[in-house]
UniProtKB/TrEMBL annotation:
<dbReference type="InterPro" id="IPR010582">
    <property type="entry name" value="Catalase_immune_responsive"/>
</dbReference>
<feature type="domain" description="Catalase core">
    <location>
        <begin position="42"/>
        <end position="430"/>
    </location>
</feature>
<dbReference type="Pfam" id="PF06628">
    <property type="entry name" value="Catalase-rel"/>
</dbReference>
<dbReference type="Pfam" id="PF18011">
    <property type="entry name" value="Catalase_C"/>
</dbReference>
<dbReference type="InterPro" id="IPR024712">
    <property type="entry name" value="Catalase_clade2"/>
</dbReference>
<feature type="binding site">
    <location>
        <position position="383"/>
    </location>
    <ligand>
        <name>heme</name>
    </ligand>
</feature>
<protein>
    <recommendedName>
        <fullName>Catalase</fullName>
        <ecNumber>1.11.1.6</ecNumber>
    </recommendedName>
</protein>
<comment type="similarity">
    <text>Belongs to the catalase family. HPII subfamily.</text>
</comment>
<feature type="region of interest" description="Disordered">
    <location>
        <begin position="1"/>
        <end position="38"/>
    </location>
</feature>
<dbReference type="GO" id="GO:0004096">
    <property type="term" value="F:catalase activity"/>
</dbReference>
<dbReference type="InterPro" id="IPR043156">
    <property type="entry name" value="Catalase_clade2_helical"/>
</dbReference>
<keyword id="KW-0376">Hydrogen peroxide</keyword>
<dbReference type="InterPro" id="IPR029062">
    <property type="entry name" value="Class_I_gatase-like"/>
</dbReference>
<dbReference type="InterPro" id="IPR041399">
    <property type="entry name" value="Catalase_large_C"/>
</dbReference>
<feature type="binding site">
    <location>
        <position position="372"/>
    </location>
    <ligand>
        <name>heme</name>
    </ligand>
</feature>
<dbReference type="Pfam" id="PF00199">
    <property type="entry name" value="Catalase"/>
</dbReference>
<keyword id="KW-0408">Iron</keyword>
Amino acid sequence: MPENGVLAVSHDKPDAKTAPSNPKVQDLSSDTAPRSEQDRLTDNFGHAISDDNNSLRAGVRGPTLLEDHLVREKLHHFDHERIPERIVHARGAAAHGYFELTDSLAEYTTAQVLTEVGKKTPVFTRFSTVPGSRGSADTPRSIRGFAVRFYTDEGNWDIVGNNVPVFFIQDAIKFPDLVHALRPEPHNEIPQAASAHDTFWDFISLTSEAIHTIMWEMSDRALPRYFDTMQGFGVHTFRLINAEGKSTFVKYHWQPVNGVHSLVWDESQKIAGKDPDFQRRAMWETIDGGGTYEWDFGVQLFTEAQASEWDFDILDPSKIIPEDLVPVRTIGRMVLNRNPDNFFAETEQVGYKPTNLVPGMDFTNDPLMQGRLFSYLDTQLIRLGSPNWQYLPINRPLNQVANNQRDGYMRHTINPGRVAYRPASLDGGSPLEVPRDQGGFVSYPEPVSGEKLRVRAESFADHFGQARLFWNSMTPIEREHICKAFQFELSKVETREVRVRMLDLLEQVHPLLASQVAVALGEAPRAEQVAKPGGTADSAEEMELLATAEAQPSASGGLTKAKNLSMEEQPPKGIRNRQVAILAADGVDTDQVKAIMQALKAEGAKGHVLGQHLGDLGGVEAKKTLGNSHMVLFDAVIVPGGAEHVQALMEDGDAQAYLLEAYKHAKPIAAYGEAQALLADSDLARITGQDLGEMQDLGILSAEQPDLAQFVQTLAQHRFWGRPKVSRISN
Ligand code: HDE
């Protein structure tokens, strides 16, 4: 805590209580501008300003004078406020927190952050979408960035990862092509934050190495519900080096404590309009309310000898190492518990780079990673404008920086003395090199030999094997969502040759997948049996067909199906940070509402009372309305009892729409007391023709009095696929 007490006065948020224990937050506080009610307005050089509303002019209605340094200073700063956004991952949000190690990897590495059990290392973690601009929505179909900076005692360590474990291309030289194809098309800058356009699919159809990652991208993995319901992966194989200098390969995994859950496509698109800030808002509000976002940190550790047995190359970033071959060992937890004070200074100015490794770690020859080792440092120069970007408060490490680098735009550090070179006999030759046994970084002495060649290794040649493994590992509903995603994306492609080339690629994953898509595109199917396109989520026939569609994988270590690829097969993990809509009109049973809110709060979830109007509903307060919210923004809906309120909701189209949307998107619905009649007589019952009172197994609860334990259990299951007649509800 700095002596000037800056931290104490700079914010009065509930999460400020977590600040003093976080050394990085204390470090930032020395640059946090204090703000108090007694502040006197000054210009940038400390001169007090008496009038901030009027320029200095000659005559009451006359021209503004060149002399007016105050207006010039203010406009000058404003004119230069923007910096280039990130070329990819421009849209993102971040939070502070800590990483706590629970299991030491001392056998494998000397890195203190991975060997000192119980130590809490400050982190700053940023989540992002890939293709969209900084002002785009949170929920396009996109792989998500998952970048974690650890401020360790040995310098910064960044795992700049994604929420899927593989990448589209195998060599960095293709990255600009991939991104140019994905981003809005250059002639008209359309479409924003979307892959559903010709250039993207043109590139993919000619780049078969992308097909495995494309399967992930077309699955619901590319539509995470919240940041804390997605996994994170380091993607590449890295090295850990122990005290004897022995190297072990490692892959990094983040497993969300709240389980892995996604949106469905219809929901994602609607959220993009109803609340484009949906995910950043959810994280902000959870943390602002004293809650946390948490992940377990796991590693897959393996040796060169193991790697040599597998029929895929561990240097190929388009391949996973199935958890069946190398289980994930959980070694710690990341807890995000503090929002940034300032978006620009922290979230925008943070510059991650995969070269931020600490001693006891090293890179591998993964050709995608090798390119990244150059690119991230390079990009910060254009984005942040100076080689001194690493001295920005959010980027500087917690330990001391000492070297002979000097000068450059915006140099803040004042380096005294006359020596800025090595070797030097003056000033004691400082700073001194640090030998390995005292914590100096030493690269792993991997033997390297060979001819200089511009080639792709033969061991990278299998492009389809793991795409088939992924397909096989999906449940029928997940397969259906993949088929529908391809149908949507490719139906937006105007060039028929591109669509057909994609079908050729898909056929090599599975003919049924290709056929389901082909029929929707008006092309001939590639399998004997096909389900009707534009089909019905509730079609038992389609589900059965999808259930039996197995492919023959390769490059999979002999597996036909792999663990933990399916989200649906992962067990439910409780309801923490879930959001529940409670529909309420005047006359609602307020005791029931309070009991529901209480029960949700006790489990870490949040009930939101949505009134027909804001304000008091006779003892509970509506902070949102049916009209200013939407079902897609919630995980479940409850209609409490109360005769007058139920009567009002029966006639309210918005209330009816909540039930229809919740049903369609497979979310829990509960109706209590008089609201049972509302359910029975709802548009939902009429349109689907279902007896909604008999659908407890499908997540529709109705009872005289709320059984809140049952509701919590139902909410924990998240989605109830297989509800009948879903296709009768329009988008
Ligand atoms: Fe990135 N990537 N990337 N990337 N990446 C950037 O760096 C790049 C790749 C990832 O929240 C840029 O600071 C190349 C894989 C994340 O600030 C840029 C290649 C993975 C973020 C860049 C890749 C990632 C970025 C843009 C192929 C997952 C956001 C701004 C050789 C393992 C970090 C910036 C944040 C950002 C280059 C491939 C993850 C241009 C050249 C693979 C999470 O430097």
